[in-house]
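Here's a chain:
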Amino acid sequence: MIPWLGIDLVFPPITSALRDPNGLLAAGGDLSPERILAAYRQGIFPWFSPGEPILWWSPNPRMVLFPDELKISRSLARVLRAGRYQVRLDTAFAEVVAACASTPRQGQAGTWITEEMQAAYTRLHELGHAHSVEVSMDGQLAGGLYGVSLGRAFFGESMFSWRSDASKIALAHLCEHLKREEFGIIDCQMETTHLASLGARAIPRREFAAALDRLVPDGPPPAPWRADAVADAFRRT
């Protein structure tokens, strides 16, 4: 059994999360900005399917990507140098989230990015906490990602690709931006072989929680991300 959350913002300790399914911690509550941010600060995130109550997770181990450990293949490096794309930040947040929700994924029959989740993260974006990276090709949105920024930690939520390598381009530019801003970690939540191929690795939950203690102090969100901040990160001059 897992506890149901009350009207306050108190979560159970992450060490009480279930082993099977890995990381299930609590149910209920709401998706208010205050609750979601309180969850992220403790290494907890919401994840549930349509028709389920809101479920809160803190898996062990935790999949993370350190920005300077991104693996860029030779073929992707050529794509990045060629620069036949445009990258922007926070100019099409709602469109990126909707694309992540609607893009079919191998092995998944539906999406966990419900309308309720889309509305919740759009509100976080309006408050300066959630951000998107958008990749355009030939003037059309081709791929991107979104997540939540707190302190010097970025909590990745989802990515999509409608053109070859578009989501990888977005991730590469995100890592460059985060390195310049001295971010220490990207939370990838669950282990996948795809993320591992890009340099992400699993670390014990206690190490992840300790990293958040260092990287996520209490306080206001950082300054807004500039839309052109990553535009020329890989192009030859």
